[in-house]
Fold this protein.
Amino acid sequence: MEVDLRTMIREIPDFPKPGVRFRDITTLLRDGPAWRQAIRSLAAVYRDRGVDMVVGPEARGFIVGATVAYELGAGFVPVRKPGKLPARTLRGEYLLEYGQDALEIHLDSLEGSRRVLVVDDLLATGGTVVATLDLVRRLGVAVVGVGFLIELAYLNGRERLKGYEVTSLIQF
């Protein structure tokens, strides 16, 4: 039986700061059948696209991305905050609302990969995923698409992803 995945996302008002409505996926994660439905639905979009590697940014992108990779029979590459990866890395900086941040990927992590899918839990303004896509592009690998469980459409993050196939299962 199909579940309305939108009903599985809990809203936490004023977290992490006043005025923000945080979309919490832990309520989806704890429901086995709904979680399976979400992952299979997201993976189904890319099943016949020859994806050989899924890339996911820290931290919830690890959960969603690794599970989608498993479902597709692909490998998984984590993109982390600076200083968290042990081998040589490529670094990319991106702007936040009040400053900047950075992400890193192992230089050799996509060697031999031809078709990469970038996956995260949520698309808001797009800063994290744009930085992740930049790292993948700089490593010379084709991006098949960008997938999310949730999209906060009112923040227009999709606008920053023109030229990519973007999939989101749940929109707010």
User: Anything to note?
Assistant: Strands lie at 10-13, 21-24, 53-57, 75-79, 89-96, 99-106, 115-123, 142-151, 166-171. The chain has a mean pLDDT of 96.
